[in-house]
UniProtKB/TrEMBL annotation:
Taxonomic path: Bacteria, Bacillati, Bacillota, Clostridia, Eubacteriales
Keywords: Lyase, Pyridoxal phosphate, Schiff base
An annotated Gene Ontology molecular function: pyridoxal 5'-phosphate synthase (glutamine hydrolysing) activity
Signal peptide: none
The name this protein goes by in its record: Pyridoxal 5'-phosphate synthase subunit PdxS
């Protein structure tokens, strides 16, 4: 990952990437010293807000995603649907495959490591990946501890199915949160459940008196400062994307209307009949998620969608991995 510096335009307020800075260095945003590497990582993740991140397995797929308007791609040897179908142990992708995708596109490239597998994360940082996803899609390496993400310069993405999980991952150093959903199914119900749960718990914290927040922090198993932030701001301190089962423009618009700040799409694009057209439609749906007429146009003649798996037919719930 390049150690980018951010600078805010005094006239328009837009934050721009201007040059690399040493890891751990102080940096300036709008004339204010922000101080920590973590703050820089959070701001880098903010730049993906309102975008779509697509799973890709080849440089050709990565180019399709970039042409469709994806804000980033997730480099994987197998998309979640294939991981689920194959079974067995799923691990970090081959660095050679990841480098091929990095060389093919100009947008940020993400890659997954197993939950708790800090050595895989070290390898991904060494090959200068832009973001690491500590992902439940892969087989967990540690069933008790997640990676201490504060020891890394590269920003981390983590999944969560409720507010407690989200805040615990943020406390560990995650710069971006996504719903877990149920990857590889094409069934958005779990992502909806997780987003609704998170939003309901945020509203509950907002309704609490100041003295009740200490008990809430104990209940959620997170520091008081994180609970205080959610209480005061009505949102997480990092960007919150939707993921897991998003397969259509309507799915993407649904998640945005429920409060997501962007969308991950895995199997839904490259398991469909016309990946390029579907990818472009989902990107436009995220931008125009409140325009029903536009969504109707985007949903028309997309070709065959991926064959989904109903949640009642699933024997392994990946969303239950890593709490």
């Amino acid at each position: 990952m390049k150690n980018w510096q951010l600078q805010q335009c005094q006239n328009c307020g837009i934050v721009k990437i201007i040059s690399p800075v040493p890891a751990g260095a102080n940096y300036y945003s709008g004339g204010i010293i922000m101080g920590s590497r973590y703050e820089l990582n959070k701001n880098l993740a903010q730049m993906l807000k309102g975008g779509v991140i697509m799973d890709v397995t080849t440089p050709e797929q990565a180019k399709i995603a970039e042409a469709a308007g994806a804000c980033a791609v997730m480099a994987l040897e197998r998309i979640p649907a294939d991981i689920r179908a194959a079974g067995g142990v799923s691990r970090m992708s081959d660095p050679k495959m990841i480098r091929g995708i990095q060389e093919a596109v100009s947008i940020p490239v993400m890659a997954k490591c197993r939950i708790g597998h800090f050595a895989e994360a070290q390898i991904l940082q060494a090959i200068e990946i832009d973001y690491i996803d500590e992902s439940e899609v892969l087989s967990p390496a540690d069933d008790k501890y997640h990676i201490d993400k504060t020891k890394f310069d590269v920003p981390f993405v983590c999944g969560a199915k409720d507010l407690g999980e989200a805040l615990r991952r943020i406390n560990e150093g995650a710069s971006m949160i996504r719903t877990k959903g149920e990857p590889g199914t094409g069934d958005v119900v779990q992502a909806v459940r997780h987003m609704r749960m998170m939003q309901a718990e945020i509203r509950r914290l907002q309704s609490m008196a100041e003295d009740e927040l200490f008990d809430a922090a104990k209940e959620l198993r997170v520091p008081y400062d994180l609970v205080q932030f959610v209480h005061d701001n009505g949102k997480l301190p990092v960007v919150n994307f939707a993921a897991g089962g998003v397969a259509t423009p309507a799915d993407a618009a649904l998640m945005m209307q429920l409060g997501a700040e962007g969308v991950f799409v895995g199997s839904g694009i490259f398991k469909s009949g016309d990946p390029a057209k579907r990818a472009a439609a989902i990107v436009k749906a995220v931008t125009n998620y409140q325009d029903a007429k536009m969504l109707a146009e985007l949903s028309t003649d997309l070709g065959e969608a991926m064959v989904g798996i109903n949640e009642q037919e699933i024997s392994l719930l990946m969303a239950e991995r890593g709490k």
